Amino acid sequence: SMPSEMLLKIFSYLDAVSLLSVGCVNKRFYELANDNGIWLKLYSSSLQPKWTIWKMKSKTETVSLGCAALHDKKPGYWKKEYIFKQTSAFKTRIMRLVKLLDPYTGLPCKNKEAMKVSGLSWIIVLKDKNGKEHVIEKPHLSFKDTSVTILWYGTDWPCLDILSTLKLFGVTPLLPDQSRPPNKNGPRRFSLIAEYHLANLTESSVAVGSDELVQLFSLSPGLLVGIWKEKNEVAFVMASLHYNQLLERSILGSATVQYAPPPNKPLLDDIDPEYGLHDYSLHLDLHGRSCMYLCGSFKGLFCRKGDIENGYLRLTVVSLKDNRKHLPIIGTLGICWETDVFKGNVKDCFVMDLTLLDETGKPFWCFSAPVYMELSSKASGLYDYMGHIYTADYVDSEGKVCVEFVWLEETKEYITVSLVLYVSTKKVNSWYGTNY
């Protein structure tokens, strides 16, 4: 029953975040909280005092900061302009932090710092077949050299049988304030990272492994779903996100459309389909969410014309015959998981983080994904290693990875004896604008 003039006076003392929040109370508050006079004042105060002229929609407008003639603008116009200005400045500040690259991995050096400054978090949204959405927050994070592993679990998740999709979002405050931590109840911006279909999950996805309590299923890209064996219900969800373009995908997308990176601009060099790829670098991590099993870097990778067949270019990283590059696995391979009550470890599987850099040091092919091992039918013919051979393969639209391990019973450890990358010719052609 309070007069609108009095409410507007009260609203004029609020900051932008409070105005956005009070606009959610009811329709009347929403209309009053869109008042152009209030938002122009906020917009003007965010400018330097000497700024009275700026470009807007490719036209130059001169605005008197004390002007009250706002009737030519639709309600909410200056609110949108203020939000656009603040979010643009925020994105610029974050992207500036990740410009410095690590020569070791070819990835931004200050990823963690940028994530902290942005107030970035990740959530999953489970949608059932009736259209109802269930938002799962409060993830547990584990940072590695080139990826972050995110684990969600809870006791009130919907039944697997009624779930249709799972969406993974990056979430940041709509109007971040560097002077105070982000308010989880304040307005937020959602950026869609990936969407997964959960219908017929156990039949349509890849079974990674199991222990006494759960069975793991992998969905591309980089998602692992743990299912309770007894109840056939979701126990936890684990996502592996590679640092390459992680911030862009988590911040620059929208709630409905994923971020699309710009196409590569190749440099003029000696790339020639007759010559093949040359001087590539690889950084490889194998881990189990909380522990590292292998970390290796390889330089000077190349392929010749004879290494191109069946739509792939082969890059041999570790050869079966060259034991100088054979790498031991530290610890027992497995993926650790936990919920509110139970903990476990699914053996013979791990998360693979692959970062392949081109000859200029730019990330060419990057992923972080769960991979499982299986016993090979062939026995080791190596003089140095007598034991069972295990294989672990990964495939996506950009290429394939084939790894072979030998199990040494005497020392109770795995040795990596073969590692071969198969890069899709379509990926290479789109990257260089050539025709392999």
UniProtKB/TrEMBL annotation:
GO cellular component: SCF ubiquitin ligase complex
SUPFAM superfamilies reported in the protein's UniProt record: F-box domain (SSF81383)
Cross-referenced InterPro entries: F-box-like_dom_sf, F-box_dom
Domain of life: Eukaryota
Record-annotated F-box domain positions: 1-42
Pfam families registered for this protein in UniProt: F-box-like
PANTHER family in the record: F-BOX ONLY PROTEIN 15
Protein name per UniProt: FBX15 protein
Gene that this sequence comes from: Fbxo15
